[in-house]
Amino acid sequence: MLPKQDLTQLLLDWRNGDAEAYNRLIPLVYDELRKIARRIVADQRSDLRHTLQPTAIVHEAYSRLIHESEIEWQSRAHFYGIAGRTIRRIIVDEFRKNNAEKRGGEWEQVSLDGVQAAVKLPDVNLLALDRALEKLESLDERKSRITELRFFSGLTNLEIGEVLGISDKTVEREWSGAKAWLHRELTRETL
Amino acid sequence: MRSMEQHRRAMEIFQQALDMPPEVQSECIQALCAGDEALLQEVRELLKSHQEAGFLSEAIQSKIAGMAEAVVQAPLRDALALIGKKLKGRYLIEKELGSGGMGRVFQARDEEVHERLVVIKVLLETSEPNEWLLRKFSHEGEALARIDHPNVVKVLDRGTYNRQPFLVMEFIQGEPLTRLIQRGMVPLNVAVRIVTSICQALNAAHHEGIVHRDLKPDNVMLWKLKDGTQTVKLIDFGVARIANPHSAERTTTAFPVGTLPYMAAEILSGGEATVACDVYALGVITYELLTGQRPFQVEATTQNAAMFQYWNAQNERCFVRPRELRPEIPKPMESVVLKALAFHPEDRFHNVLQFEREFSASGALPAPADPKSEIRVVPPSPFHTAETAVFTSGKPDSPASQADSSNQPERSSRGDSSSSSGLDEAQPHLSVPSASHAVPAAPPAAPALEIAPSKEKPIPVGLLVAGITLVAVAGMAVWLWGGSRFTQAGPTHSADRSTLMPLPMRAALPFESVVSLKRATTGQTSGVNINQAEQNIECQTGDEIRLRVNPAKAGYVYILSESPRPTEELLPRYTILFPSQQDNHGSARFGRGQHIDLPEPTARQGLKLAGDKGTEKLWIVWADESVAVLETVRTLANPRDNGAIRKREQVTAVRDLLEAASVSSGDRLANQCLKFEHH
């Protein structure tokens, strides 16, 4: 009944090699992230678009769920990893629901309403992204994790380096490779 | 394996190529690929992608943010999507009545049974169907269905819609007991009758092994029957618990503030809810019915502090004896109530029947012949200064039982209820003469402000006060709208608050507000004086609002705004408008005769409502001493952010304070809420 402690314990278990703990962590984090995301919207409706980034959600989730004093630094890294994975799942599910009736549509030139962007950003098919990430995971797990942490946990290269225990230079390098690979993969899929 | 190896090689060459001078790049990669065409092709594609991938990251992030928004809006959307839907091919959802925790409450019409109204509670939002929660929801539904008592809200049906389980419950048209208590002291015989009904309902539940867990006057409905009589219905049996099983632990904000006063010490200290807890809550309700106030009152700004203080107050038994507040209470009755309030569960009554028996006996009132005790009500009459409640035991036309001669009720003649009230006019309501102020003749309860337009267009605020037409009649007893305001207290059965009932105000506020409204559409300015605790004001986008607060007593004044929120369970968003660091030398202190203008009279424009539709509230808080919470919050609020309060702890502290002030309206702390209904 005390999710904070549950979560901390599960994180510790998972880090200590209990694979089952991971499966039990996911739903906990999932529920919590949703609630947190909703509260962020409630708090700052007007600057919604600016604040409702996965980053904000994850940081908030972290501060809410983990007893800082009770958990060592590595677990923090694990948490971000899980949060990233979880948010990816939530977001892709939502995308799937919203786009169930649509077909294709990758890279359509669609403007994003509400965003004052000078450049029209291409519309991204998140399902394709998800599939691409899965493929990347089988080929090159580290790149896939880096991508997930960037997109869905909103971490910087430096933070990702800390999470994965590699230098930010390496992250930088891997990330440029991952981006190129994703771009190629995503454009290939529409062809 | 081949692909993995190729990928590794391709990436390696790609990375190297990035560091090469462009002019040699093509040659070099060809050499590095050593005739492997597929590899060369992949490296080339990667390099091309690298150049084009500029916006990829941004586009993906943008899309993800958009989806994140969709995710958080989803529950709202899901709820909206239910309106107009037919569940089980017969329940046509008409509107949403409220929400809380993870459940939502709708009003629906049962097309198979004479289009009768029903209430539907849907367990929404379990994105990942949570097996435990689903089981619990259906289990409690079954348990509730088993109770089958006339004083307990009935579960009529259940089912699932899109994998979301729902319960169909009877629709209760009436008002919560809270309202009756607020109107003043309840005649003893009425109190006994109500308490007896609650006991019987509880007993039926306990018999089925169900503890209510959240017994409070808000969950005791006085249901108006067709013949004008009222009966008691208990609602929200353990549903709060099902809908939000982790609320207490997960978020302090979701912890129902309004419920604390009804929580027994053992619950406050983390124990399980038992029958004894319901007995305790019953004791509090009875105390409140008899005396008009709760046995224990605490002042605390945080949830934890309040919990501790309630626990402590129960332990020390620091209440005022009911007979000191109301001497007519028979001594045995007092003893019964105090026994129910015992600190140790084992010192209370062992069950509600025992409580009921002793309580009824103590009032020397005959037990009702019919378990469905009925309250005879008289519609408000414009010709009488007071309406009274008459109880009948059993048949509506039998003479009232009036054992308590000191409080013998009179029956007023039936008169037409006021026509311009905008309320449910036909609805009789239970009203009792109060010791402190007579209930006025049914007033034209102001349906939002009617503001008479003034002639000139731009009126300096100074002149405005003199030039306005007063519609809300100051000086007379003022009535306020009950409004359908849902508290934070988790999912409530919502029929309760959907009925608007006029209420007399308890005490005059130590200040008066003057609101002037410049209509965007007509450019006309009009104003009104308000000295009641709550007032609805209709307005539209672009309307300009100016506010003047005239304190009648020296003290401290704070003004906050509260933005509309999409659903009530979200935290409110406050902005502190006064004092700012410049206003009044940055002080909230005011002498008598001084007034506060918002914005400054010299400001060219008044306050404008933000684009969000909904109810924007202005809270005016008056206190005889500076209010620590608000002083802290206003120094912390970022002036560059216009004084918005963003930190969660601060928001909850402010909310708790506003709630406390609403309850305690008096000479130390009082507030007023102006609700700008923005359409």
Question: Any overview of this molecule?
Answer:
The complex is a heterodimer of chains A (191) and B (679). Chain A is mainly alpha-helical. Chain A has helices at residues 3-15, 19-43, 48-51, 54-65, 73-98, 126-139, 141-152, 157-164, 168-190. Chain A is globular and about 45 Å long. Chain B has 679 residues and is α+β, with helices and mostly antiparallel strands. Chain B has 4 domains: 2-56, no CATH class; 72-170, Phosphorylase Kinase, domain 1 (2-Layer Sandwich); 179-376, Transferase(Phosphotransferase) domain 1 (Transferase(Phosphotransferase), domain 1), CATH 1.10.510; 446-480 and 507-678, no CATH class. In chain B, the strands form 5 sheets. Chain B has a 6-stranded antiparallel sheet. In chain B, strands 16, 18, 19, 20, 23 and 24 form a 6-stranded mixed sheet that branches. In chain B, helix 7 packs antiparallel against helix 11 (275-291) and helix 7 (188-207) packs antiparallel against helix 15. Chain B is extended. The termini of chain B are far apart. Mean pLDDT of chain B is 69; it is low at 239-258 and 365-506. The interface between A and B is large, with 61 and 56 residues.
Overview in brief:
By secondary structure, chain A is mainly alpha-helical. Chain A has helices at residues 3-15, 19-43, 48-51, 54-65, 73-98, 126-139, 141-152, 157-164, 168-190. Chain B folds into four domains: 2-56, no CATH class; 72-170, Phosphorylase Kinase, domain 1 (2-Layer Sandwich), CATH 3.30.200.20; 179-376, Transferase(Phosphotransferase) domain 1 (Transferase(Phosphotransferase), domain 1, Orthogonal Bundle); 446-480 and 507-678, no CATH class.
